[in-house]
Design goal:
Structural class: alpha/beta
Shape: globular
Strand content: 15-25%
CATH superfamily of the largest domain: Response regulator
CATH topology of the largest domain: Rossmann fold
Length: 343
Amino acid sequence: MKKRHVGLVAAAAALALTITGCSAGGSSDTPAENTNLSVALSVNGALGDQGFFDDAETGMVELKKLGHNTTTLQADINNPAQWKSNLESLSTGKWDIAVAGTWQMVDPLTAIAAKFPKQKYLIFDAIVEAPNVASITYAQNEGSYLAGVLAATAATDTANFPLSSGSKTIGLVGGMDIPVINDFLAGFKAGAEAVDPSVNVLVSYVGAFNDSAKGYDQAMGMYNQGADVVFQVAGGSGIGVLQAAKDANKYAIGVDSNQNALQPGHILASMEKRIGNSIVLAVQSAQDGTLEWGKTVTYGLANDGVGLNYADNDNIVPDSVIKIVDGFKKQVIDGSVTVPTAF
């Protein structure tokens, strides 16, 4: 039987974030231990992307199940003024914690956190240096290292991966040419090189995270150049990459959440940044008074904050290959391999 992902929520006690002095609803008072909190998420886009935003929302759903009061505000993905307005509306004292995510929210949150110093904020996948903000980042380079190992293995092992031509060519389609996406790329290339230094890695950028048609075209171009596997790190644009894998009868790797079932038989795995779980852990830490405001916590392979999910992929990755990938994972965790980063 293949190994399956075990969520961080199940291991919350072992992975609790460090923290001090959580304030409730804009007040300087510390909530009583185990008091349920009110938590609001401001999304700089819309739910339904089957990836980044939806994964964050899974955390909010879980928090509600745990008894917390939650809400989620959505926005036009191309309307920064609305992102800022929504976050400001959550900063008036009604909500114990206002949550936002991605590099696009760094500037708005930096300004708003200074304007509302008593409000507590949580930002994920980015860092805001402010005394009332707790930041969560993810070692996407480490997770992408495993994606590179898997992609290179699939591109060189035609016996176990019959849709592969053995071309030793793989690709990565990124949303934008920005540091966080290039951090995925740095890890992905390193993982591929660890398997076979002669593997060719094609790279392109959509220029947006919501253009699935362009994502499709760029991935199809890579498949036409001989790529056997394409890793999508393009948000909503990456849905087109996964469709291209099916149409080209090749392989892809999903990102952020488990996207394997979107194109069964063609998605080898999904490199998850377990955003929803990390939000739950942060709120649980705030609830018990251990969340450290003004600090950053990073989730990587060692604490199961990133990793490959093979569930719902039609069992197209044999256990023998999963064991190989896990061997590379252990090398990163024990420090014998240091994965390069774009930061």
